Amino acid sequence: MSAGRADLFDGERVLWEGSPTKFPVFDRADVVLVPFSVFWCGFAIFWTVTAISWGGGALFALFGVLFVVVGLYFVFGRLIARWLRLRGTTYTVTDRRVIVTSTAFGRRQEKSAYLKTLPPPVLTRGTGTTGTIKFGASNWMDDIRSGGGMFALGALTGRGTASLPPTLVHVNDSQQVRDIIAAAQVSKQV
To answer: Helix H segments across 54-138?
Structure first.
């Protein structure tokens, strides 16, 4: 990997770079989101069919179609968007920051957080040496907002993913990466 993937500050030193080893379509948040998505889409289809069959007018039908489109995004689109986003994701750990750079649909997004402001890294082991690294304890709502690819839920709740620490999903040698981050955090506190 080249250090040019993330925008670095002058004097910033790269400690580790990597990318997801897998591109999971489903994650922990989907235990809640999949049933909700199916319910939403089913209700939206019911609404639209009922509005059209009862002669509710174009406005009710258009309203229903809008909710069907949102429902289809909840059921399929967010999973595809997550998969595509992870395929174009790289992670960089420097002596100052953790940086997640994603490229999807021609858009490049970079999210970073300073090591000294992050809680300690928490490793959730996957298969073999892979795992996911989060910072601090997270609750199921954080998982829905960050891992769920649910930009709409962030907009509905008024809290997007910008306030959440970065997450390193399915990294290889995850225990070693966690240790690199923890050691860099300790050196920043001294």
So the answer is: 58-72, 78-87
- How would you list the strands of the sheet with 121-125, edge to edge? 121-125, 131-135, 168-171
Give me 102's structure tokens. Answer: 């994603």
- Closest to 177 (Cα-Cα) out of 128, 134, 133, 139: 133
Rounded-to-integer distance, Cα 86 and Cα 78, Å: 12
* Digit-coded pLDDT (tens) for 87-130: 999 999 999 999 999 988 888 889 999 999 999 999 988 888 89
Note whether residue 2 is domain-resident. Answer: no
**End residue of a domain, out of 54, 82, 110:** 82
Number of domains in the chain: 2
In a domain, 56, yes or no: yes
CA distance 150 to 157: 11
Neighbour tally for 159: CB within 10 Å: 14
Entry pTM: 0.73
